[in-house]
């Protein structure tokens, strides 16, 4: 494939990637790699297309950063992005390890993640919102103390999970009648 045709294919693949059409982007990157296995832009695009199937936001952010590095004519663009992908893979592996683990107590197994482990996940992901979105459909947070529950509810409200917070608050209000922090959270949600 000549240089102009390669550039045209790369541009098409990038456009598909930006639109979230990762399978089509991957197909085009695959064609480019078949014709030129050493084409680094196609290799990075293919890797990020694959990453996007599991983590769309991260892949899009890395792809945009890669484009900026290329525009700056950074000779290290591919190496930098590959290192960032490796770091992301490590972080996802740690998250997976945390989620696959189970808590044991009194000879019975509880499926979920302890609040302490969840807070480690928050630190690893850099924000409560990102960590909670990572687990909210796949596991549950096991809360064993009143302080953990109040902190969790506070974080839900501060990060815009108001409907979910209200469901938890309804149960918490029954378990801890008259708790001022719960009433403050209700007021915050309504306000």
Description:
- This protein is mainly alpha-helical and 191 residues long.
- The protein folds into 2 domains: 77 residues, no CATH class; 94 residues.
- A two-stranded antiparallel sheet has the order 1-2.
- About 5% of the residues have low confidence.
The main pleated sheet reads as: 2 strands, antiparallel
By secondary-structure content and strand pairing, the structural class works out as mainly alpha
Distance between the termini: 61 Å
Number of strands: 4
Could you list the spans in which at least 5 consecutive residues all have pLDDT below 50? 101-110
Shape: elongated
C-alpha-based Rg, rounded: 22 Å
Beta-strand content: 5-15%
Helix proportion? over 70%
Strand order of the largest sheet: 1-2
Number of domains: 2
Succession of helices and strands: HHHHHEEEHHEHHH
Work out the helix count. 10
Average predicted confidence as pLDDT: 81
Features:
mainly alpha; 4 strands; 191 residues; 10 helices; two-stranded parallel ribbon; elongated; 2 domains
């Amino acid at each position: 494939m000549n240089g102009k045709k390669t550039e045209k294919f790369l541009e098409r693949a990038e456009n598909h990637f930006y639109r979230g059409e990762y399978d089509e982007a991957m197909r085009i990157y695959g064609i480019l790699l078949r014709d030129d296995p050493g084409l680094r832009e196609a290799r990075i695009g293919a890797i990020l297309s694959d990453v996007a199937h599991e983590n769309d936001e991260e892949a899009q952010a890395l792809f945009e950063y890669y484009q900026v590095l290329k525009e700056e004519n950074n000779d290290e663009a591919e190496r930098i992005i590959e290192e960032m992908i490796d770091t992301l893979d490590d972080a996802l592996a740690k998250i997976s390890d945390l989620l696959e683990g189970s808590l044991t107590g009194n000879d019975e197994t509880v499926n979920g993640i302890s609040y302490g482990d969840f807070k480690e996940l928050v630190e690893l992901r850099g924000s409560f919102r990102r960590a909670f979105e990572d687990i909210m459909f796949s596991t549950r947070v096991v809360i064993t103390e009143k302080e953990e529950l109040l902190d969790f509810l506070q974080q839900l409200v501060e990060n815009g999970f108001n409907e979910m917070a209200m469901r938890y608050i309804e149960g918490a209000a029954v378990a801890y009648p008259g708790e001022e922090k719960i009433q403050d959270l209700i007021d915050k949600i309504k306000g």
